[in-house]
Amino acid sequence: MKKWLIIGGGIQGCTMASYLRKRLGINETEMTIVDLKDKPLMNWRLFTKRVGMSYLRSPSIHHLDPSPFALEKFAKQNGCKDHLHFHAPYDRPDLQLFNQHCDEIFEQIDIEKSWVQGRVVALTKSNHHWIVTLADGTDFHAENVVIAIGLSEQLNWPEWAKEGKKSGANIAHVFDDKEPTITDSVVIVGGGISAAHAALQWSKLRPNKVTLLPRHPLTVHQFDSDPGWLGPKYMNKFSKIGCYEERRKVIKTARHPGSLPSELKTEIERHRKLGTLQVKIDEVIEIQRDTLLLKSGGDLTTSGILLATGFEQKPPGMDWLQTLIQTYCLPCASCGYPIPKPSLEWEEGLYLLGALAELQLGPVARNISGARRGAERIISSF
Ligand SMILES: Cc1cc2nc3c(=O)[nH]c(=O)nc-3n(C[C@H](O)[C@H](O)[C@H](O)COP(=O)(O)OP(=O)(O)OC[C@H]3O[C@@H](n4cnc5c(N)ncnc54)[C@H](O)[C@@H]3O)c2cc1C
Questions:
Q1: How many whole angstroms from 127 Cα to the centroid of ligand 1?
Q2: 8 A C-beta contact, residue 168 and residue 287
């Protein structure tokens, strides 16, 4: 019997593992992390590499170690010069430095000794503990389970793109497992930070052959929600909202999806003026072979289309969580998302983190800061 089992070894699950080991003194044999992938943070590494992101949007105190200044300390110990590895404003760290710091944490907590590769397909209760069942039939027993699966299994494919793919158009999602094969011109659909990064990356590879196609003018926000959501400024009021439909509305209004920091917009503008990148504000309504038909009445012909359209916003994991919800009558809001307690406990010994916990953690739940806040809440009840 394990003391703790974490489902999902992405940013959320690995932060939880780090807090359990470093703050709660759980040892590596008392904890198991189950993930589809063979190593921690595989989605994070793939997605950030795919869009060519070189530094984070979030500040240096947002990382996976419980100690807020651990990343800065790690940088100093490794002789990193602040002005080269942390970017103004808000000291946003280099992706490479951030990833090296994650690796250092994983070594410190011997994460590979807790790691199990597999797909969780069921969760059942037995005499005050949980049984976690994998697709190959293996069972794990644990006193406490944390579900930390993200949205990454549900890439957002607009209807026209699904139809286009079926009829053989060269369309890929920027976060597909497989590398896209685009040999000439490329249209990048989307207007947020991932679309902007991808457009800059592709315009270096294919100058003059890249079009960024956002639905609306590029919108600048330094962060994907106001920093007031990181603390009592907004969270006190949010936590007092008793109606979960209202909480969902507040989260939706607070988030800035499809936005980007100002320096990225400046960089896009620079490339546009140089002519290495075209930016066209329009919306695809249909695709015919290699031609995109646009809402404005115009069209765009291209040899490849890359979707930077994010993830579907429905709650993740419902293919197996639905049975759990029905069996144990677990509370969910009308948006389909779970309603855990403020401690993030959903049922005795069963906790949620990340997207699944956002009706308690608010708009930052899915980010690194949300992982820290969530892990803190979970361990503080022990
Ligand atoms: C390009 C990009 C840049 C970002 N930059 C920042 C930033 O600068 N700062 C910030 O705070 N946030 C940033 N974010 C947002 C956020 O931090 C990430 O999306 C975060 O990685 C989400 O973590 P997660 O653990 O929820 O999801 P994931 O990383 O997808 O991890 C979930 C894990 O669960 C596993 N899993 C799912 N279902 C099962 C199952 N049934 N059984 C077993 N395992 C399962 C998956 O294999 C996966 O490894 C960025 C996101 C992207 C895409």
A1: 32
A2: no
For the chain, domains (ranges, CATH) are 2-55+99-153+312-379 (3.50.50.60), 159-221+256-307 (3.50.50.60)
Residue 188 Cβ < 6 Å to ligand 1 = no
Which DSSP state fits 307? E
Tell me, in angstroms, the distance from the centre of ligand 1 to residue 150's CA: 5
Query: Is the shortest distance between the CB of 220 and ligand 1 below 6 Å?
Result: no
Q: What is the pLDDT of residues 229-250, one digit of tens each?
A: 999 999 999 999 999 999 999 9
DSSP characters over 118-179: --EEEEEEETTEEEEEETTS-EEEEEEEEE---STTSB---HHHHHHHHTT--EEETT-SSP
Alpha-carbon Rg for the chain in angstroms? 22
pLDDT digits (tens, 9 = 90+) for 11-48: 999 999 999 999 999 999 999 999 999 999 999 999 99
pTM equals 0.96
Nearest CA to ligand 1 atom 14: 367
Residue 134 corresponds to which amino acid? L
For the stretch 345-375, pLDDT in tens is: 999 999 999 999 999 999 999 999 999 999 9
With a cut of 80, say whether residue 259 has pLDDT above it. yes
